[in-house]
Request: fold
Amino acid sequence: MDMNILIVDDYNTMLRIIKNLLKQLGFNNVDEATDGTMALEKIKRKSYGLVISDWNMEPMTGIELLKLVRGSNDNFKDMPFIMITAESKTENVVAAKQAGVNNYIVKPFNAETLKGKITSVLGEF
Amino acid sequence: MSDVVPENGEDQGYKRDQVVKIISSVISKVEAIEDVERETIYRELKNLHDIIEEARQEVGQAQAGDISDKHIPTATDELDEVVRATAEATGTIMDACDIISEKAAEAGEAGAAITDEVMKVYEACSFQDITGQRITKVVATLKAIESKVDALMKVLGEKMPGMPIQGDGESGGEGDAALLNGPQMPDKAITQAEIDKLLEEFD
Reply:
């Protein structure tokens, strides 16, 4: 598929896992960022059909990135955004939803879960 | 006083005696009260001293200085090494998975089942991210404890000079137990080559 996807995680292991799983799902145009700041720079320069982001990163967290994206006046304001994180408290999920996240995946996850969540956000692919 | 003390000597004498008597009585009562208070204060101070002395001895026996100087730094270094080692191992596993995936793709349909299994390995590798985050939290907690102990040791060192807050630097244990050091940090571990050389020296 031609859609550009940006994955954001400070763990190289997780970037590789998500990238490989996306590749298996047919997504080959995958870019990487290791925190919200780097991700935002990429989002400003390139059009992405989906962002898959971790929460707990420095200096900019995933929720801060989400809020900046949703609070902007740019064309990426409504970009689909999935959070993949180990933060599994209800308050985290609520905060992410209130910030405008499209879906939320708790680590560890499998390919089936990732596919299901992407489908729920983007529709069948 | 001139408006209250009578001019005649008898009255003056009575008044003077009475005042002296009252003053003496007050002084004696005050002295008596002070004696009681001093004793109470002394007893309280003595108790306080005993408690402080006991705490000094307990802190000294606990070798609290070692907690911040040795135990916690060692523990955090060990945990950091766990994160590093698991990340490296996970990377190696995924490198192998990448190669297997490529070969499976070249095999066409026959390789599909292999690819599916490789994906499960990828999924399982996410343990490194989870454990890494958990260990990072533990390290942060240990560092917070370390700073509290440091502050406590600083106060004790200033307020109680001569207090034995430093340990002897030994981890404890005797005989075989003293040899249970666990895996060594890379900068302290000896290599297999060094071990072989060492063993050869015994031959």
Remarks:
- Chain B touches chain A through 21 residues (CB under 8 Å).
